[in-house]
Design a protein that fits this description.
The protein is mainly β. It has a single domain, classed as Nucleoside Triphosphate Pyrophosphohydrolase (Alpha-Beta Complex), CATH 3.90.79. It is about 10% helix and about 35% strand. The protein is built from 1 helix and 9 strands; from the N terminus they run ββββββαβββ. Strands 1, 2, 3, 4, 5, 6, 7, 8 and 9 form a 9-stranded mixed β-sheet that branches. The protein is globular and about 40 Å long. Keywords: Hydrolase.
């Protein structure tokens, strides 16, 4: 798979969390697309993934960070997140992204249009921060879940 090739794993048409007519596409690819709005770090241990509480809701999820506007592919922010979670020099491999496709934006939709990406990078390294190992099967409602398989 090169930068232009991807595998669409799942499509959610008229996604309830997006403006009317919006769809969410889960895509596997080797190169991060732009614009990247958020980065997530996937650490696995068998059938478990490392999770931390989400800001605000406190629900357990993959370690996550928003990207800066000038970090188009998320590479700066994912390196910073990986250093915090797994240590400096953590190995990273881009797995894929959830892509929101919103052709007709609305005022309260905070992400870029018509496309916004929420990338997932995997690392074989162990976490160096506190968190919880969670059975992946209990996280099927997470949009990134198909990328963890």
């Amino acid at each position: 798979m090169d930068a232009e090739h991807e595998i669409v794993v799942r499509v959610t048409s008229d996604a309830s969390w997006l403006p009317p007519g919006g769809r969410a596409e889960v895509v596997q690819r080797e190169v991060p697309p732009s614009p990247m709005s958020m980065v997530r770090l996937l650490l696995r241990r068998g059938d478990e993934v490392f999770c931390v509480p989400r800001a605000g809701t406190r629900k357990l999820d993959l370690p996550t960070r928003l990207t800066a506007a000038n970090d188009l592919d998320g590479s700066v922010e994912i390196r910073a997140l990986a250093a915090e979670v797994a240590g400096l020099g953590a190995d990273l491999a881009f797995v894929g992204a959830v892509r929101n496709v919103v052709e007709r934006p609305v005022d309260d939709y905070p992400w870029p249009t018509p496309r916004a990406h929420f990338g997932v990078w995997a690392s074989p390294d162990a976490p160096i921060i506190d968190g919880t190992w969670v059975d992946l099967a209990t996280l099927t409602e997470r949009h990134w879940h198909p990328l963890a398989g």
